[in-house]
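Note to self: keep these together.
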Amino acid sequence: MTQSFRVGTRGSALATTQTGWAADQLAQLSGLEVDTVLVKTEGDVVTGSLANLGGTGVFAAALRQHLLDGGCDLAVHSLKDLPTVQPEGLVLAAIPPREDVRDALCGRDGMTLDQLPEGAKIGTGSPRRAAQLRAYRQDLVIVDIRGNVPTRLGRVKGVGDTHDDGSVGRATQGDLDAVILAAAGMRRLGLEQHITEYLDPSIMLPAPGQGALALETRTAGTGHAELDQALARFDDLHTRLQVEAERALLNQLEAGCAAPIGALASVQDGELVLDAVACNPDGSEVMRRSAKAPLADGAAAQALGRGLANGMLADGAAVVAGLA
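Structure:
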């Protein structure tokens, strides 16, 4: 009889889709079968603003506890949802190749950001997105929204129902001119036809870790030698170094995903290049900085992130972004 491993996931359409993709890859690499364990998290059931809920970690805590308690062998997270400090007893065993890192505008009537009328209403639950939108166009009205991807899409006039599964924030539909969502999630769900513009990072830097998945295990491993080996093979070095730099910057700024901070690392000509932005929440002030270092290992990537963060702090980033 073929052995199986248990993978823990949140129950949303996006979470189960990306977990299913990762689990299928690991099943092929390891020769094991997979059992999926659904875990309900605080972020799935509590209403209200994500920023007020505490942002980072609100979707991860229950899943991590289930992993620590032995309820599953492996947990799959959206990396941008994880706090930057790794909890005792757990390790990010694999970070597979990254999806599209950009934020995506889903506008009514096929409109791009520049085509939206003056005073257009744009929905987002992210202070980072809201601040960069305001910095680009002060006339926009930013509406704080919750819910999974189909629910948020349904807020856009003319989009209609996109097969929602009853998530938080479902009550209102068709009241907005556009919403901003992560391109990675849209593509994973096969909903990219609703994207009217991929926002260039020069307009909107993504969240640290955006587009990347984190496959987390207990420090001692999964209990399956074949699965541990498969995880090591599934890990993508360039993606890991990029997100290590981004998350080190966020950690050094002592900011979470509820802060108006964007960061994006890329590999260019044998170097790791890190771009970062700190914004006043009202978009009135924006600090953009960049740094690079030779492509090396995780420690060097983290040092790059910390160094850029320290330079930004010296220039007043904490005051700009309301972190002070």
